[in-house]
Design brief:
Helix 2 packs across helix 3. The two termini are 32 Å apart. This protein is an alpha/beta fold. The radius of gyration is 17 Å and the shape is globular. A 4-stranded parallel beta sheet has the order 5-4-3-6, with helices on one face. A two-stranded antiparallel ribbon has the order 1-2. A hairpin with a 5-residue loop joins strand 1 and strand 2. The protein has a domain of 87 residues: Vaccinia Virus protein VP39 (Rossmann fold).
Length: 131
Amino acid sequence: MGKAASARGLFRATGKKSKPVVQRNLDGSYERVENLEREEDDFYPTPPEPTRAFLHAEIDRLREFDLIWEPACGDGAMIREMQALGLYTVASDMIDRGCGAAIQSFYDFGVSQSPAIITNPPFSECGWGNG
Protein backbone atom coordinates (compact mmCIF):
# COMPACT_ATOMS: atom_id res chain seq x y z
CA MET A 1 0.00 0.00 0.00
CA GLY A 2 1.48 3.37 -1.01
CA LYS A 3 1.40 6.51 1.05
CA ALA A 4 -0.96 9.35 0.24
CA ALA A 5 0.77 12.32 -1.36
CA SER A 6 1.61 15.16 1.01
CA ALA A 7 0.38 18.67 0.29
CA ARG A 8 3.02 20.17 2.60
CA GLY A 9 5.04 21.66 -0.28
CA LEU A 10 2.02 23.49 -1.65
CA PHE A 11 1.77 25.56 1.51
CA ARG A 12 5.44 26.52 1.43
CA ALA A 13 5.52 27.44 -2.25
CA THR A 14 4.89 31.16 -1.70
CA GLY A 15 8.22 31.73 0.05
CA LYS A 16 6.63 34.23 2.45
CA LYS A 17 8.14 34.66 5.88
CA SER A 18 6.08 34.44 9.05
CA LYS A 19 5.28 37.68 10.82
CA PRO A 20 6.43 38.20 14.41
CA VAL A 21 4.08 36.83 17.03
CA VAL A 22 2.78 38.64 20.09
CA GLN A 23 2.32 36.50 23.16
CA ARG A 24 0.34 37.33 26.29
CA ASN A 25 2.17 36.44 29.48
CA LEU A 26 0.58 35.15 32.67
CA ASP A 27 0.96 38.58 34.31
CA GLY A 28 -1.11 40.17 31.51
CA SER A 29 1.81 41.81 29.72
CA TYR A 30 2.58 41.22 26.04
CA GLU A 31 5.86 40.56 24.28
CA ARG A 32 7.03 39.85 20.74
CA VAL A 33 8.44 36.38 20.17
CA GLU A 34 9.73 34.57 17.10
CA ASN A 35 7.53 31.52 17.66
CA LEU A 36 4.95 30.39 20.16
CA GLU A 37 5.72 27.22 22.05
CA ARG A 38 3.67 24.33 20.71
CA GLU A 39 1.88 21.75 22.81
CA GLU A 40 3.49 18.31 22.87
CA ASP A 41 2.66 16.37 19.69
CA ASP A 42 0.76 19.46 18.43
CA PHE A 43 -2.28 18.36 20.46
CA TYR A 44 -5.01 20.97 20.75
CA PRO A 45 -8.39 19.36 21.48
CA THR A 46 -11.22 20.84 19.45
CA PRO A 47 -13.75 22.60 21.68
CA PRO A 48 -17.29 21.22 21.29
CA GLU A 49 -18.88 24.51 20.22
CA PRO A 50 -17.31 24.86 16.74
CA THR A 51 -17.88 21.16 16.06
CA ARG A 52 -21.55 21.45 17.05
CA ALA A 53 -21.99 24.57 14.90
CA PHE A 54 -20.44 22.83 11.89
CA LEU A 55 -22.50 19.68 12.39
CA HIS A 56 -25.70 21.71 12.79
CA ALA A 57 -25.05 23.51 9.50
CA GLU A 58 -24.07 20.37 7.57
CA ILE A 59 -26.09 17.58 9.22
CA ASP A 60 -28.39 16.91 6.24
CA ARG A 61 -25.43 16.44 3.90
CA LEU A 62 -23.49 14.36 6.45
CA ARG A 63 -26.41 11.95 6.89
CA GLU A 64 -25.97 11.00 3.22
CA PHE A 65 -22.76 9.14 4.14
CA ASP A 66 -22.67 5.69 5.72
CA LEU A 67 -19.46 6.53 7.54
CA ILE A 68 -17.42 9.64 8.44
CA TRP A 69 -13.67 9.45 9.01
CA GLU A 70 -11.87 11.62 11.58
CA PRO A 71 -8.16 11.04 10.75
CA ALA A 72 -6.67 13.28 13.47
CA CYS A 73 -9.10 12.43 16.26
CA GLY A 74 -6.89 13.18 19.28
CA ASP A 75 -8.93 12.37 22.37
CA GLY A 76 -12.11 11.81 20.32
CA ALA A 77 -13.77 15.17 21.00
CA MET A 78 -15.16 15.61 17.47
CA ILE A 79 -16.09 11.92 17.18
CA ARG A 80 -18.21 12.13 20.34
CA GLU A 81 -20.14 15.10 18.92
CA MET A 82 -20.78 13.26 15.64
CA GLN A 83 -21.87 10.08 17.39
CA ALA A 84 -24.23 12.06 19.64
CA LEU A 85 -26.12 12.98 16.46
CA GLY A 86 -26.29 9.35 15.33
CA LEU A 87 -23.55 9.59 12.70
CA TYR A 88 -21.40 6.52 12.15
CA THR A 89 -17.71 7.26 12.48
CA VAL A 90 -14.25 5.77 12.17
CA ALA A 91 -11.33 7.40 13.94
CA SER A 92 -7.56 7.34 13.57
CA ASP A 93 -4.61 9.24 14.97
CA MET A 94 -0.86 8.83 15.25
CA ILE A 95 -0.99 8.81 19.05
CA ASP A 96 -3.20 6.71 21.32
CA ARG A 97 -5.21 9.04 23.55
CA GLY A 98 -7.64 6.39 24.74
CA CYS A 99 -10.63 6.88 22.44
CA GLY A 100 -10.41 3.58 20.55
CA ALA A 101 -8.93 5.05 17.38
CA ALA A 102 -6.78 3.17 14.89
CA ILE A 103 -3.20 4.25 15.60
CA GLN A 104 -1.93 5.14 12.15
CA SER A 105 -0.88 8.28 10.29
CA PHE A 106 -3.33 9.72 7.79
CA TYR A 107 -0.55 9.52 5.20
CA ASP A 108 -0.12 5.77 5.75
CA PHE A 109 -3.66 4.87 4.69
CA GLY A 110 -3.57 3.78 1.07
CA VAL A 111 -7.30 4.30 0.63
CA SER A 112 -9.61 6.74 2.36
CA GLN A 113 -11.69 5.14 5.09
CA SER A 114 -14.69 7.18 3.91
CA PRO A 115 -15.52 9.73 1.23
CA ALA A 116 -16.53 12.07 4.09
CA ILE A 117 -13.67 13.36 6.25
CA ILE A 118 -14.11 15.78 9.14
CA THR A 119 -11.05 16.79 11.11
CA ASN A 120 -9.21 19.59 12.85
CA PRO A 121 -5.76 18.77 11.45
CA PRO A 122 -2.45 19.21 13.21
CA PHE A 123 -1.38 22.43 11.52
CA SER A 124 2.30 21.60 11.93
CA GLU A 125 1.73 18.77 9.44
CA CYS A 126 0.12 21.13 6.93
CA GLY A 127 2.77 23.81 7.04
CA TRP A 128 0.04 26.48 7.32
CA GLY A 129 1.81 28.15 10.23
CA ASN A 130 5.01 28.53 8.24
CA GLY A 131 3.94 31.48 6.09
